Each structure stands twice: as C-alpha cells, then as structure tokens.
Amino acid sequence: MSTSEPIIETTDLGQRFNGQDVLRGINLSIERGEVFALIGPTGSGKTTLLRLLDLIDTPSQGKVYFDGTDVTESTGQRLEARRRMAFVLQKPVVFNTSVHDNVAYGLRWRGMSRDSIRNRVDEVLEMVDMADFHKRNARMLSGGEIQRVAIARAIATEPEVLLLDEPTANLDPVSTARIEGLIGDIIQRYQTTIVMATHDMSQGQRLAGRVGMLLNGEILQTGGWHEAFNTPRNREMANFVGIENIIDGLVLTSEDNVVTIGTNHSVIEAISDFAVGDRVHACIRSEEVTLALSPISSSARNSFSGEITRMTSTGPVARVEIDCGFRLVALITNRSAGEMSLEKGKSVHASFKATAVHVIKQD
User: Rounded to an integer, what is the distance from CA 65 to the centroid of its chain?
Assistant: First the structure.
C-alpha cells in the first residue's frame, strides 16, 4: 500500500434524513491504491456513506477531502472529483441498448474518439469475460452478467477510485465467485483505490486489506482483519463478526494483566487490564475451544466439563453446543467429532486458553 497522502479523507462526517441521524462522526482516511472494506449489517449506513464519498449527496455536517482538496461544497470541485471516481450500485442500472453502448457511455461523455472508444470497450469486455456479448441488449442479461457490465462500464474510464456497493449481494455462488475474481483482477492490474461495502465478512477478508466496522451509523473501529475478528469493541460488533461465545461476568481478581471473571456458575481466566468489579463480556471464538472425552493436561487455563446439547455439521466442520453451566460453542472437524463419537447427551471436556478470551466492558 502506498504511503502517500490519503486520496479520500472525511472529518466528522454526518448525514440526517427526516430529522434522524443516519451517519454520525465518520472519520476515515483511505490511502491511494488500498482496498478498504466497509463492513456492517443491512441498514447500518454503508450505502449512504458511499454516496457521500462519491459526492452524489452533500453531507449534513463534516467535510470530504479528495486528493487533499476540500470538495464538500464547491460544485465545480465536486464535479471534477467525481470524474475521477466510479460507483457500482448494489442493483446496477443498465440502459436499454447494447452491452457495447452501455460500456461506452462514460467514454463518449468524456469526448473520446470513436476508435479509442471501440478499443477501450473491447479491452474491458475481454477483461470481464463479456466480449461475446457486446451486441446483446444489456436488459436481457442475467444478474451476474449485468454486474460484470456495470463493473466494465466503471473501469472503462480508468477511475482513480472505484466504489462498490454490495457487489455480489443478489448473486448466486457461481456468479459471486466470478465477480470476486474480477475485482481481484482489477486490484492487481490497475492498483485502483477501491472502497467496497459488504455485509459479508469473508468476502471483505478475501478482497480488502483494511476494514471499517460500521454499526448504527457510526464507524466503531478501523484496522486489519485480525483486529476486526478478534478484538471487537462492543457486544453488537462481537455478534456481527461471528463470536458465538459471549459470556457475561464480573471481574473478581486482577493481577499483572491476568483477570478472573466470575459467571453465574464458573470462573474464566483471561488476559485483560480491567479492574476488579468491572462488569464485562468474555468473548471466545468457537474455533478456539478444544474438546476431549476426559480432562487433559495442557496449557489451557480454562477447562470445563459439560454435556452436548446440540450438534450440526456444515461441510468439514461440526458445530457443538455444550452446557457447562453456561452455553459454550465449539467448532471442530467432522473427523475429530467422529473419532470421539460425539453426539447429543454425551459428556465432554471443553478448554480454551486465557489468551483466547477477548474481554470487553458491558455497556
């Protein structure tokens, strides 16, 4: 990623509709050439933020800077910045004309010669694997094909910034994989700055280098994927990133950044600097929980016996719910589950390390 000044910055950005805050206090800095994912559930404000970054809408408060210039208010500066960006909507609009003409639209608007337009359209249609469709009416295409045409139309103008709003939200798995591959090709070929909004954590992880976690109109944290997955800042975000084990408790002891957390029935040991008396959530990713048929000697500081209450299998992985006095979920391989003959009602021993516990304060 480039270390040059950010190509997009926002300061205290906010948007209100009908007296309601849709976005509040958005402070972002996106480097030239990076791929940045806005992750959040439906309704969190992702599309609204992309529209502000693309300068389609004017914010209720705060500022947007493009390439170091404040483009929040000036019509001329906004227009100039927009010419350097492209936006692919979640449900792209295509014109009732050929695929070729759809892709050529932005190039004609920029006044390119007919030969230059034809060469550029052929190039991008080849890239998105739509060269054989150039005479087809775009309205007659499938959802995945329309998305590829929309992306081709966007990259035909060689934008410095490409904004993608849920690029595969309405597509089947095969089309989704194809679009993700295409986005990966764009990243490799053009080094375009990409800001993509998605509710799909795994998709964002596959494509983006950095993430902004958006919830209820606020960016709760930005950073790398390890931080996003393993150190969410509140319970809502922990739920969203898929942490199934969120156990309420009270810090009973604290010494040298090692705490004991009392739950209703047990004590959990964790690495944390919270103080005695703090009410907290102990968060443990289910893949960090180890199961055995009898107590084992290990470095894990937390070990509990319990009974399996539910088992489900997805692909090569088994999800095991255990009643340890509190509900605990483990993810193990189907092979391990088979070797231990795990089933509902069976007694097991669950363990996890103190370092696997992420502690957050209760609201």
Answer: 23
Burial class (CB in 10 A: 0-12, 13-18, 19+), 287: middle
Per the CB < 8 A criterion, the answer to whether 354 and 267 are in contact is no
Number of H helices, E strands in the chain: 10, 20
CA distances from 42 to 5, 165, 199 (A): 31, 12, 7
> What's the CA gap between 28 and 35, in Å, rounded?
13
325: tokens are: 């006095």
Over residues 139-187, the pLDDT tens digits come to 999 989 999 999 999 999 999 999 999 998 888 889 899 999 999 988 8
DSSP 8: E
Sequence-ordered list of residues with C-beta below 8 angstroms from that of 284, at least 6 positions apart, any chain: 243, 245, 247, 328, 352, 356, 357, 358
* In contact, 285 and 353? CB cutoff 8 Å: no
Question: Ramachandran region of residue 247, left (φ > 0), alpha (ψ -120 to 50) or beta?
Answer: beta
SS3 266: coil
**Predicted confidence band at 28 (pLDDT cuts at 50, 70, 90)?**
very high
pLDDT of residue 314: 86
Convert 21-40 to b/e letters by CB count within 10 Å (16 or more is b): bbbbebebebbbbbbbbbbb
